[in-house]
């Protein structure tokens, strides 16, 4: 009686104060499984004492205790974790570990010492940690764990986050608060959150992080800042995560006292060699440099008449002896060249295929413009078989409504990865380019522009966590299903109840298409507000350069709308494999989702539905608004399965999204109607405000600039 | 056995995951009392259902459950809370509630329904909430609760935080991350943290908050921003907290379409009337405006030849009918007037005593310069008996080492509050000016410039929480002891163990003097780096205005050092009551802590210790460094009483402080030695770097600018 009173007190205490459902736990929630779920407390066999195995063991303990409770003394089930090198017991099991490779793992049900056992083994400690997270996820997603025979190894070598974090702690295109790097207190103070960050990434297999913005400051390469990066690297190391830095190409001038940054200049080469040596002294496993050169005003080798290859190779030579790599972005477009911006990355890089060092990765954005809600895959994929091509996805939602629009990006990533470049015939998917399979590349990479900040939920909204999660899962396996991943995430993050998982996974899977509908349907792109990229701005024109405007891309006029990239226009289709390009150019073949990306068409052009283009455009905008309505309704129904705190935030954000979807629809319809000069389709409501009103809105403190 | 196994599991769970010791709980930790501490589970009698009483009841429940465990059914002790109006039981007790006033409370041990009872009663709901926090603090600080007869009422009417939070979410002079106001998502989404903030403030009796920076944007007074403020006001209202806004004086021009902001212009007056009406429609209990006018480039009535009284009274007339107030800052100094900056606030305001409306408060900084580590009290205190004078303290440590120097500001606040203005003879303390007692003022105010941000610990460091705490406690009772308050805070925030409380309270009480020693000993002031105010900058000279430099204040030369404010110099002493000014001017009377504030003295001037001024200066700098060493040692010994996470952060910060204290000492000694031309006293180490080195340091991303 006394005891039970204490027990009740404790349970109440736990329920009321222990679990602030602020999202900080991410998908690593480890809440108790339902009674009768069939999982039993399990002991952990002794584990070798290395930095990474200590973490693996602690994670396993934490997960099991949370999910199924601590094992009583003498539990008849045991988990054995480790590597053959560190564990004689595991060595004795003679496991087929070759398939696990350098970073993978093997999970096996076995009998050990006469007890029912689960073995989580790997060739290296980091594989064990990955295996532990995988094992716990099986319980979190309520899969059986009694008869396991899992082997998993990452298909991509560098699985990276790119932080566009500035030295003043702002985050370019960040919608989740400040940078989590508290530069000012580094290197003296390592916020416990750094380890939380590393843990979350390790749970996905992410093994690299670029700390600072690609629009870089040379200062980040000076001694005090190298020390700050070094303090972070120390925290990340046992989690298998290497630190990289964005390098400003003109650093030899700015911090090296040189008059040039010409990559062919011996003094410049010596500067970078010495700088690499200096960094590796502090960070022995430093990953390397990420470089944005000759793009959007950043300095680069072309400033000196040298090429991207000259620049990348010079840096590669500096870090190469230390085992480092150079990641060189293909996101370039010239001030001088008035050609279709979509064509410029290909035009500038394709000629140099085969000329980059082995330790250079060309990092290519998923599409040829810039992370739009929808873009056809970038024509460079498949076009540079003699180069290491890495993928750059954007996780932060610069163009998809910031943190307050719900848009699960799994389908966007999957759409690109499954796109068929036909570079070596059918089945030459982007995924096979990226994972090195198509062209036999060894140094492979996938990067995601992080959506992480100081917000308690890490990502600015609960559902945006799913984008970090799906990015990591696809970097491990680019052939995985974004729907399966959504289901795992929803179960681990919210609830494994099928009454929740079913509707919410459907909601997630449709959410990106909904955003496409209300922002840029039918292949439209780059129609957002200037500079902050918030809200609709199809009227944006003039200013510094034409290809930073909306009118440049929509090409709307009395005659019709769309960007002609066929041979009659910019002929961007010619940058694709012939069969692919031919289809894009052919109105009978091209998918309507990409219609206005490739074609300029009259307002009365007939869509497959029988509607005119104008009618189809308007109804798609409206369908987007209705899609948000439907998401709101579904989410409302989910209240029984979600804690009040997170349910309320998602509800509030969906309300914002609903209002802003309407705004996108109304503003876009108002604007394009000035060209179409046609009435709205029957049943379509007139925009409640005049076009002047929408054009007059301003947002002086929009985040992320 | 089964039950006990579950129990053990639960205890482990609680210990390992429930309490992230990241400081977010502040002083409201409610951890279980030690076994045998003598507190027993207590039931809560039914409470009337009003917004504030619901919160009071929930807090009491949460506190009791955490501290002593939930009460079992039929507990023989009961707590009764409420007001006579809402509780017939309390009305029936016929308590002497008059002494509790509008906001105070009464806590009485009593017998009720034959049970041992504690009664927490007040005239208004907010008093009950304050009383609940007080009652819980008694247990938190391990005071007996069996025989209580407490009555407490605040001595000051407006107890306010001033947030210098900008609309882009940066915080001027903030060292704790971003503004907690997520303006972008307001008013749609109310972060649960807003209620946490209100709760923490209510626990101290703080009843007002100015949301935005005194360097204000007119935009904050437009409809969308009023709505954002309104959403915050809705959250704060049941916690007894009113929202105020900083008003930009030129708003009639910037958002009102007028050509002038002249306070005598009828259109301007109409603008502010209408603006006030608009705000009160959204926020019926809006507190009023805080104004920084004609100061540091801000617009004000003097731009039109009008006076501070003209400006303040115009705004007072706009908010007065709604019950609002205008808080007008006396922190002014003119670009045109080359007089001693310390004299200008007095010179500009004293002549207008008696000319301000009854609903105007003149908000005066504690000292005449700007929140230095030490300043004599501001000469306006006591000098404007016919005006409402409010106190402005700075809680954020702009001039005391940012978040990483440990400096408990209680003694600073107390020193000012206990200073004797002698305005009406001896005993005319600043506290008595501020609480209205000296001059019979009814509208009294104390404001603190907040040190709150998005950092998980709220204040950027654990010990900085104490500065928020002591400000709140002194605003309730300006006669309270900063040492007693430190002890309460240390017990509530860390541990009530006397082996912890004794050394840590001593450490806290000495910490501010230590900072004074290594930064600005003997009355020196304004010696920090330019603009960011980080680190030593005694050589700062030139630039926009002389009184923004260090050399202006130290007046160091071959002949000596110090600012002569006697009749031979600026005669600032004449702004004080004659006896006070005479003492300041007299080398035999003035306290050496203020020596160089008031006097310019030769390097060989003899201090009371027998040392020369030069020797005393150097040894004080060094004493400051030694003081940080001692704090580090004390804190190291506290490891057994503090969780590892918070102990580690404080340790890391003390290490930073140690290094920076040395830097302050070395840089200052190097600089002043160029004037003194004297050797260091015996045993004093030479600065390890040249003066050039110290002068060459730069800090491009210092926070808080």
From TrEMBL, chains A, B:
Keywords: Carbohydrate metabolism, Glycosidase, Hydrolase, Polysaccharide degradation, Signal, Xylan degradation. It comes from the Bacteria. InterPro entries: A-glucoronidase_C_sf (IPR037054), GH (IPR017853), Glyco_hydro_67_aGlcAse (IPR011395), Glyco_hydro_67_aGlcAse_N (IPR005154), Glyco_hydro_67_C (IPR011099), Glyco_hydro_67_cat (IPR011100), Hex-like_dom2 (IPR029018). Residues 139-458 form the Glycosyl hydrolase family 67 catalytic domain. One of its GO terms (molecular function) is alpha-glucuronidase activity. Residues 26-135 form the Alpha glucuronidase N-terminal domain. Belongs to the glycosyl hydrolase 67 family. It catalyses: Hydrolysis of (1->2)-alpha-D-(4-O-methyl)glucuronosyl links in the main chain of hardwood xylans. Its EC number is 3.2.1.131. Residues 1-20 form the signal peptide. The active site is at residues 296, 370, 398. GO terms for cellular component: extracellular region. The keyword Signal applies. One of its GO terms (biological process) is xylan catabolic process. Residues 460-683 form the Glycosyl hydrolase family 67 C-terminal domain. Homodimer. This is Xylan alpha-1,2-glucuronidase. It holds the Pfam family Glyco_hydro_67C.
